[in-house]
Design a protein that fits this description.
alpha/beta; Muramoyl-pentapeptide Carboxypeptidase, domain 2; five-stranded mixed β-sheet
């Protein structure tokens, strides 16, 4: 009984500490503040990826039930990212097309409130960002994606499905079929040679180098 009581107290204190840390974050929540920031620094504009790169493929999982939350989190199947991020994606798509490949985007900008919801429900906290720090997705500087055959639009075989909590999802996991290793490493090399860095435990997640220059945001898609 005493052990259960201590565990309960620990969980409550941990939750309280997380909440307090999150309260100290500076998060852009109003369109007025966002527009002001963009006016001062045009590169901070959130750009609709599909509009900027028409031949890119979207599979926005959080606009459906096909995700680890098993419910719709986004009201629209759209993807946004900061202007320099989209410019780099445009270059990557052009480079891949020459080799018969293309990009499929699973997720990009994510409002901060969604990050909070993910953290509260995720069974493995190692695969979700802590609200105490926020996510690079909240900054419009992280992209979840994979490779597809440009003509058929079929996904290229990778070590795991998107949003897998398996050990094989790690970017350096080696106990895999040769074809999957080759495909994953080709994707990572392509992204990292164009201004992104892969997240160590998620082969599909890429952070834009320079994300520190962009604020956390909690602006819903409908306002963008």
């Amino acid at each position: 009984m005493k052990s259960l009581l201590r565990l309960t107290v620990f969980v409550l204190l941990a939750g309280s500490t997380l909440h307090a840390a999150a309260q100290k974050l500076i998060v852009t929540r109003s369109m007025a503040d966002y527009k002001s920031a963009v006016k001062k620094s045009p590169e901070k504009q959130l750009v609709d990826i599909k509009e900027a790169i028409p031949d890119i493929t979207l599979d926005i999982r959080y606009a459906s039930n096909n995700n680890f939350m098993n419910r719709v989190m986004y009201p629209e199947a759209r993807a946004f990212a900061r202007k320099p991020v989209v410019e780099q994606l445009k270059n990557i798509q052009k480079e891949l097309r020459k080799k018969g490949y293309g990009l499929k985007i699973y997720d990009a900008y994510r409002p901060y409130a969604i990050t909070v919801a993910f953290y509260e429900q995720a069974s493995d906290k190692n695969f979700v960002a802590s609200p105490a720090k926020g996510s690079k997705h909240n900054r419009g500087c992280a992209i979840d994606l994979t490779l597809i055959n440009f003509e058929t639009k079929e996904e290229i075989q990778m070590p795991t499905p998107y949003d897998s909590f398996e050990a094989a999802a790690a970017a350096n996991y080696q106990d895999l079929p040769a074809a999957e290793l080759k495909n994953r490493d080709f994707l990572i090399k392509t992204m990292e040679s164009n201004g992104f860095k892969v997240l160590h435990n998620e082969w599909w997640h890429f952070d834009f180098v320079g994300w520190q220059n962009y604020e956390l945001m909690d602006i819903p898609f409908k306002h963008l």
